[in-house]
Amino acid sequence: IWFAAGFLGVGKFDRNGIISWYQWDSRNQFGAVAVDKDGKVFCASDRALFKIDNSKLVKFNNEDPNPSLVRKIFFTADGKIYTSSSTSLCVYNDKGKFLKLLGDKPRTNSFYGLCEFDGKLLIGKPEGLFSLKNDRFEEYQLGSQSIHQKIFFIEKDKKGNLWLGTDDGVIIWDGKNLKKHSKENGLIGRETNRSGFCADSFGRIWIGTEKGVSCYLREYDNHEFKPSIINVQLTDQFQNNFSIDSTKHQDIKLSYNQNTFNLSFNAISFQNEEKIVFRVKLVGFEDLPIEFFHRNIIRYTNIPPGTYYFQIQAKNYNGNWNKIYKSANFIISPPFYETWWFYILLIFLIGGVITWIISYISKSRYSTELEKQVNIRTSELIESEAKTRAIIEHAPYLIMIISKDFSIKYLNKSSLPFSVENSPGRSFFEYFGEREIDSIKAKLDNLFKYGSPVHFEYNFKEQTGRENWMECYFNPIMQMNYFTEAIGIFVDRTEMKLAAYEKELIDQERNEAYNMLKKTLGEKEVLLKEVYHRVGNNLQVISSLLNLQAFYVDNKELSTLYQESLNRIKSMSMVHERLYQSQNLDCITLNEYVTRLSSYLFERYEVYKCIDLQLDLDDTIIEVDKAIPMGLIINELLTTAFKEIYDLYGDIVEKKKVYLSAKRNGSDLNLIVEYNHIIDAQTRHNEKTLGIRLTDLLVSQLQGTVQYLFEDGIKYVIQFPLNEKRNAEENINC
Fold first, then answer.
1. Which pLDDT belongs to residue 52?
2. What is the pLDDT of residue 405?
3. Residue 509: exposed, middle, or buried by beta-carbon count in 10 A (0-12, 13-18, 19+)?
4. Which residues pair with 155 in a beta bridge?
């Protein structure tokens, strides 16, 4: 037997049990050995291919072009030699000359098994079964099926069947069908080895796995074997063994105290015996059998007296149940107290002892119940004490117990400034300054005398100079109707005091800043109101001067110009007048302002007999920088409308409608002035009066747009943006 043994070299095990070693040098690691058809021995290391000639190791070729550990050597019918490794597939001729290196991805492929089959060279790889064609690897199918799992070896037996060793058993191809054998079919392990195949001279096939070697017997392959029950044995609680095999013809007798026993048995199968399922029924005791997996022992307890036997069945991996196995009979004898003579004796004894039994039972029940209650209460007290101690020991506060003489009896493991190791037994007042002792002692005296809870605060300084505040709560502990001890809880309030002090400082600074800001804002508001008031007064003075001047003008056109200027000044004056009266100094209400302005113009021109002025206004807020240009625009458009209607129709019976709309549209304001029944409206508009030119200028100032529509009259459509920060829902009194 030739074998490759890594760095040890190549070994030969002869018929006399002697091992001979062949080694080239310590650098070569041998991983494969093979014998060709002429009986020549070849071996391969991770560096070169060798041949054993005259009991010597001879290098068969130069250094390997792709050095890696060779796992398989294969000889083809055309005289070529293939070596496979985890990285490559090398080809040599029979003279040892290297021909080529094969591999889809060199240094990343693994090649396991090699075999010539059906005129093709088959190769086993981690990805499955492949064939070599034109130096390329192609997936090889057996029939119409592909193999997609690791293939460690590929071998042919003497009948031409192809054997594939995989990571889950072996696959057999007989030219028509595939058959798989794995651990469930009797194979001792799942994963096969690269050279784990051997066909001996008796026609047996040996398969090497990671758990040992299994033998394949062809004559048993197609038989449906059923498990066979053997070694049926009963063991009582005293470890006495009784064989109850079906071959026993004599009943087995057991005493009444042997009624607890174990039934053990085995089953043999040509398949995986770990997968055998058992079904057991104790006839005479059970109505239905008990079915359980992979166990060959079952325990019975307190079986009543009687005659019994077992029925046992086993099912193999393929689901085949064997014929029901019937054990020998066994008899459990009744105890003496179930015999007839014991019943007669018992009747005589019952009458004499019944009273004593009742009394004893009553006392026993009372004693048992009392003991049970005591144990329950004791357990509850112990558990409660443990929980209470755990809570107290790990509480985030200092907990202290003092006696009536003010000595410390207990301290928990708090991190407050008391020393747990040294404090018990010391006086409670050692931790306070002299100025606090009298007041605290008076409160504690009152606690021990009347049982009144005590609450006090004190502060102290650490050695670092840091000042700390403590809050203390003491409650009395009563023993034998006297207040002998008190339990106290100490809470560190330092962080809270510091936080409150910091908050007080912050609030004080905030209030001072707020009062200063409020005072400054009030002064600015007064100043701004005074500015609006003076601007309004100045506009009123200008209006009065123009009005006086117009009184001395005889020219009607000039008087009209004075009147229009007065209206423009009035529209601006109304804005400043409203701002002066408002609480807010940067905006006014659109509805109120436009209503007052239109009413003023309506009365000023005295057109109430010929014009019906209709208003459609939003309760929208508008800023000062938008209100003044908008007021001038409304003044110009309404003045133009009143004059044109009055000039054309005068005081007629039927009033003409003038429609004024001011509505918010998102962040814009839409302003519409419309009146009908105007002859040559477009011609009149094209004359570009001062009012029209002024309107265009003011719309441009507002960054808006204006449209002039002419259809049986004239319609002005003006749109300009408002300040997006304000809207009609703001609760601002403008």
1. 92
2. 86
3. exposed
4. 163
